[in-house]
Amino acid sequence: MSLHDIRMLLMDVDGVLTNGQLIFDADGRELKAFSAYDGLGLALARRVGLICGIITARTSSVVAHRAAELKLPELHQGAHDKLAVFEEVCRKHQLKTSEAAFIGDDWTDLPVLRRAGFAACPANAVAEVRACAHFVTPRSGGHGAVRDLIELILKAQGRWEEAVRGYST
Ligand SMILES: [Mg+2]
Questions:
Q1: Number of structural domains found in the chain
Q2: How far is the CA of 4 from the centre of ligand 1 (A)?
């Protein structure tokens, strides 16, 4: 496991990019709340060429909308075999699985977390996932957990200053 090798970050959605709540309106449309902290973190990652994307078992238009807004190059919804999708996305980018990080919060994420070069989970993740992760973010899903992970990766790679150039001065 080396943060220096990480070239891609793939993420679960529910409980990671959100607090895990599934909210439905009266017409059955699904709503989710995302964090602006994660939004800026993902924009900073994009600035320095860290490939970011989503692998989620559920399917909802609100996730497609958020992924488009964040200009995420990889969006995989309805992924019931997350490990297969994770390996396929790595192959597509000609990366080894050891060069990809994954952040997930529940049992369905464990196969990917065990395969990823760097395994992370938000503070709210279930105990089995926390036990398997290289890094448990200080913040919870939907409250900046992904931002915590992006900062960790870019700082370890010495790319944080480049990522925030123009913002921090
Ligand atoms: Mg989840």
A1: 1
A2: 26
Question: How far does the centroid of ligand 1 lie from the alpha carbon of residue 19, in Å?
Answer: 9
3-state secondary structure of 31: strand
Q: Is 168 within a domain?
A: no
- Cα–ligand 1 centroid distance for 11 (angstroms): 9
Walk along the chain (169 residues) and give the pLDDT tens digit of each residue.
689 999 999 999 999 999 999 999 999 999 999 999 999 999 999 999 999 999 999 999 999 999 999 999 999 999 999 999 999 999 999 999 999 999 999 999 999 999 999 999 999 999 999 999 999 999 999 999 999 999 999 999 999 999 999 886 5
Owning domain of residue 89: 3-163
Tell me, yes or no, whether 169 lies in a domain: no
Amino acid at site 163:
A
Beta strands 51-55 and 74-76, pairing class = parallel
